[in-house]
């Protein structure tokens, strides 16, 4: 009887091991897919300035280009930003939890800037803090008949099982394809946007038109960004280094127009920072700022990763502009230097997802790493790694540079799915262990889910595996 019982437990242990391997095989897959889908697309040209999507609000000095972002580390504050075109006007935000009833107010700041001969409107930023979790707030900005009212929903309290849906958009621009992406996203149920860089593409213009196209883009995204936080990261089109116009200060327009809560995460620069929202810890990195050893960004990330508490925020997400893994000829290997510096940290920290833009196509990787890269020993290829992130390239928002379908053939082993179409992604976090991810192609005016995956959380999956392994060893020892 003792031998039979021991044999049964040994068989059970083997079954558990096989089951774990099968589940891992199902999630990671063993062969990538390159979609052959081709659709008729609108020309990659910007929407004319007289189009209604760029309409200037009625009324003298009415607030425009309204957008919000998270204002603190944990989601109990927002930064509300807007522009008044004629004069500074009021810096006050009135807000409350009932429509047309504003019991609270906050005072912001105002600034402006010049770019070549263009002079911006008056840019307001106002921190509204001390908010309650999971609550709807109405806010009012502007004066008299020109005032405008919007609303937003605060996230649930920080909790490992808090469910939440993020939208992910990159390289948006302001074409008709951009509009299609934005309209599709607004029907998705996303509660806030992780934006992977390259906003307006205003730098493709010259002289005063650079600033004018920043203004039009601000009015364009207001239909979403005024009602839910967009978490900003900067791309190469935000650098705007234009010595021919005597403009040599990088990120000048971006830094004036888009506030980030960088000081809340002890960052010294608005271009890299971190927030916690619901059950996610989100780290934003700057691909175009120094990041090698001992630079401010390197030192900040080292400390921020120590602050991550997976017991409270089990989902660890990184947003940057340049992809680390990319099988498209466009921008191929541009992320290699950042990979060499940070990949080992990402693997050691069990980052769940890394979202990037830059490449104007969509691609999802398997969990792979190249942390053992060594030219001398011949270890120079990515290998499957259960502790590694999934890399997702979402530079398919719709900008005027168009799509790039120059994927390498054959498809590399690390690439799971890729397609050169416009679209957006959503990440629906269900609880501490599971999240549902999907990429939505803009297809004939209807939302079209093209790539969907259920992901297991890196931290809790490894802990569960460890507990099961210990339990199996305990049973096998009887």
Q: Residue-averaged pLDDT, rounded?
A: 90
Distance between the termini: 13 Å
Beta percentage is 25-35%
> Structural class, judged by helices and strands?
alpha+beta
Low-confidence stretches: 1-10, 12-29
Inertia-based shape: globular
Catalytic activity: a phosphate monoester + H2O = an alcohol + phosphate
EC number: 3.1.3.2
GO molecular function: acid phosphatase activity; metal ion binding
InterPro entries: Calcineurin-like_PHP, FN3_dom, Metallo-depent_PP-like, MPP_PAP, PAPs-like, PAPs_C, PAPs_N, Purple_acid_Pase-like_N
Would you summarize the structure shown here?
This protein is an alpha+beta fold and 478 residues long. It contains seven helices and 26 strands.
Written description of the protein model:
It contains seven helices and 26 strands. It is globular, with a radius of gyration of 24 Å. The protein is 22% helix and 27% strand. Helix 1 packs antiparallel against helix 7. The longest helix is centred in the N-terminal third of the chain and has 27 residues. By secondary structure, the protein is of the alpha+beta class. A hairpin with a 2-residue loop joins strand 7 and strand 8. An eight-stranded mixed beta sheet has the order 1-23-19-22-18-17-16-15, with no helix packed on it. Strands 14-13-12-24-25-26 form a six-stranded mixed beta sheet. Strands 2-3-9-6 form a four-stranded antiparallel beta sheet. Its EC number is 3.1.3.2. Pfam families: Metallophos, Metallophos_C, Pur_ac_phosph_N. Belongs to the metallophosphoesterase superfamily. Purple acid phosphatase family. Its cofactor is Zn(2+); Fe cation. It catalyses: a phosphate monoester + H2O = an alcohol + phosphate.
């Amino acid at each position: 009887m003792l031998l039979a019982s021991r044999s049964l437990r040994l068989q059970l242990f083997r079954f558990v091991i096989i089951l774990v391997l099968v589940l891992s095989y199902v999630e990671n897959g063993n062969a990538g897919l390159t979609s052959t889908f081709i659709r008729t697309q609108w020309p990659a040209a910007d929407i004319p300035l007289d189009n209604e999507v760029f309409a200037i609000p009625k009324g003298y000095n009415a607030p425009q280009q309204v957008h919000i972002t998270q204002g603190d580390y944990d989601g109990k504050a927002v930064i509300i930003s807007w522009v008044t075109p004629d004069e500074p006007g009021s810096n006050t935000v009135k807000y409350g939890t009932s429509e047309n009833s504003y019991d609270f107010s906050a005072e912001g700041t105002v600034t402006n800037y010049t770019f070549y001969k263009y002079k911006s409107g008056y840019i307001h930023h106002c921190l509204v803090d001390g908010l309650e979790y999971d609550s709807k707030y109405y806010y009012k900005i502007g004066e008299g008949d020109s005032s405008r009212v919007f609303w937003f929903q605060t996230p649930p309290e920080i909790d490992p099982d808090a469910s939440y849906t993020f939208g992910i958009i990159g390289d948006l621009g302001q074409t008709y394809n951009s509009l299609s992406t934005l309209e599709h996203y607004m029907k998705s149920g996303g509660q806030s946007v992780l934006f992977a860089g390259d906003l307006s593409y205003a730098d493709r213009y010259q002289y005063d038109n650079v600033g004018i196209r920043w203004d039009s883009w601000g009015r364009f995204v207001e239909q979403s960004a005024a009602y839910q936080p967009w978490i900003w990261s900067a791309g190469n089109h935000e650098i705007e280094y234009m010595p021919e116009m005597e403009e040599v200060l990088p990120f000048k327009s971006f830094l004036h127009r888009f506030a980030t809560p960088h000081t809340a995460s002890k960052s010294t620069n608005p271009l890299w920072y971190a927030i916690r929202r619901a059950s996610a810890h989100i780290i934003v990195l700057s691909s175009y700022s120094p990041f090698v050893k001992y630079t401010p960004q390197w030192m900040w990330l080292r400390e921020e990763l120590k602050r991550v508490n997976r017991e409270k925020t089990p989902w660890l997400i990184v947003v940057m502009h340049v992809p680390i893994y990319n099988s498209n000829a466009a921008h191929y290997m541009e992320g290699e230097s950042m990979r060499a510096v940070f990949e080992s940290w990402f693997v050691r920290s069990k980052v769940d997802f890394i979202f990037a833009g830059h490449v104007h196509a969509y691609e999802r990787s398997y969990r792979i790493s190249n942390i053992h890269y060594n030219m001398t020993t011949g270890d120079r290829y990515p290998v499957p790694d259960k502790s590694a992130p999934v890399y997702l390239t979402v530079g398919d928002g719709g900008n005027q540079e168009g799509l790039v379908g120059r994927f390498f053939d054959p498809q590399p082993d690390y690439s799971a799915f890729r397609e050169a179409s416009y679209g957006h992604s959503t990440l629906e976090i269900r609880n501490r262990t599971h999240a549902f991810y999907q990429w939505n192609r803009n297809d004939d005016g209807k939302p079209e889910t093209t790539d969907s995956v259920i992901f297991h959380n890196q931290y809790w999956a490894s802990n569960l595996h460890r507990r099961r392994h210990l339990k199996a060893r305990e049973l096998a020892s009887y």
